[in-house]
Amino acid sequence: MDTTTTTTPAITSISLEVDDVNEAAAFYAALDLEAQLKDQLRLRPAAAPSSGFRGFTLSLIADQPSAVDQVTRSAITAGATMIKPVTKSFWGYGGVFRSPDGTLWKVATSTKKDAPGKPGRIDELVILLGVCDMAATRDLYLSRGLAVAKSFGRKYVEFASRPGTVKLALYGRRALAKDAGVPPEGEGSHRLIINSTADPFTDPDGFAWGRPAEPR
């Protein structure tokens, strides 16, 4: 009898490569997300230059609008640049800002009203990668043991994730840039390392996967 079990790789954290680690650490500390994200966000010195769109965005998924407002206000006060103002839409409530280190952050919730007397919180961190060939990138990730949770053909793929881990989704590069409110052009390093329980590899768009390191 074969008792072998297969464990889907989990993204335990992401590492942002930044020009000034201390400055970036101060910015993210000002957002007061440590208790909610724990060690999912890490920083390391940048090793290569980067300009324009880096090919990815990070999304903070909130439980209600007040949490979106709180994070956004804290980010702007700490030096972020608002790219898409927070607003209501048919899908919910949210906006996009660029942190001082150059990372694009989307803060959003599918809920349009706060629950009375309930404090807001961030429920999940999501990486959205802008890819050039959706099918090829999806197939590579499937071969690495990830499982598709949601898919809209060649437009969007979302992979299954466990509670307490970082969720991964794929979007076309141009579509992702448009959603974030920036031009799609960009050169140089992605300035992102995806830390997971999988063996290290690099995907077709140059996004590097590594092993978790000690948090900083």
Low-confidence stretches: 1-5
Supply the number of helical segments. Answer: 5
Task: State mean pLDDT (0 to 100 scale).
Answer: 93
Q: What's the number of extended β-strand segments? A: 15
Q: What is the CATH superfamily?
A: 2,3-Dihydroxybiphenyl 1,2-Dioxygenase, domain 1
How much of the sequence lies in strands comes to 35-45%
The biggest beta sheet reads: 8 strands, mixed
Domain count: 1
| Topology order in helix (H) and strand (E) letters | EHHEEEHEEEEHEEEHEEEE
What's the CATH C level?
Answer: Alpha Beta
CA-based shape: globular
What percent of residues adopt helix (DSSP H or I)? 10-25%
- Per CATH, the architecture is Roll
Structure, described:
It is a single chain. This protein is an alpha/beta fold and 216 residues long. Helices cover 21% and strands 38% of the residues. β14 and β15 form a beta hairpin. It is globular. Residues 1-5 have low confidence and may be disordered.
